[in-house]
Amino acid sequence: MVKYLTKEWLEAGMNAINADPEIREAAKNLTAIFQHVVTDVPNSNENIYFTSGYKDGIVTEMKMENVKNPTYKLTAKYEDWKQFHSGKLNFLDFVLKGKLKVEGKFPQDINIPKLIEKLSQIIANIPTEF
C-alpha cells in the first residue's frame, strides 16, 4: 500500500498506466505535460503539485513538482481529487459539477474524457492509504 500524493504513489500510477495496452493505444497521439494542483489540503496551508508527462501515449514521468507552462493544468480541492482517484467520482461529474478546473485546449484526435476515465480506473485500483 502506498500513501496518497507521494512519490511512491506516482511511481505506482506510472507503472500501472504504462502496463495497460488499452491506455497506450488510446493515448498514442498524446504528447503533453499535465500539471495537477491540489488545493485545500488537510492540515496544510500549501497546495500540492504533481505533474504527469506523456509522449506518444507513454507516461514518461510523474513528479511531485510545480512546472511552468504545462500543456494542461488541472486544479481541484483535495477531497475532490481523493474521490476521483479512489474511483468514487467519475471524470464527467468531476468536470460538470465544477469540481475540476481545466486550463488548456484538448486535442481533437484524442477522446480525452474517455482516456482520463480509464486512467482514473487504473489509479483507483492502486492500493492507497488516504
How would you describe this structure in keywords?
alpha/beta, five-stranded mixed sheet, two-stranded parallel sheet, 27% strand, Nonspecific Lipid-transfer Protein, Chain A, 7 strands, 130 residues
List strands and helices in order, with pairings.
Layout: E1 2-3, H1 7-18, H2 21-26, E2 32-39, E3 48-55, E4 58-63, E5 72-77, H3 78-85, H4 91-96, E6 101-103, H5 112-124, E7 128-129
Parallel strand pairs: 1-7, 2-5
Antiparallel strand pairs: 2-3, 3-4, 5-6
Structural summary, described in words:
This protein has 130 residues and is of the alpha/beta class. The protein has one domain (2-129): Nonspecific Lipid-transfer Protein, Chain A. 35% of the residues lie in helices and 27% in strands. It contains five helices and seven strands; from the N terminus they run E-H-H-E-E-E-E-H-H-E-H-E. It has helices at 7-18, 21-26, 78-85, 91-96, 112-124, and strands at 2-3, 32-39, 48-55, 58-63, 72-77, 101-103, 128-129. The strands form two sheets. A five-stranded mixed beta sheet has the order 4-3-2-5-6. A two-stranded parallel sheet has the order 1-7. It is globular and about 40 Å long. The relative contact order is 0.23.
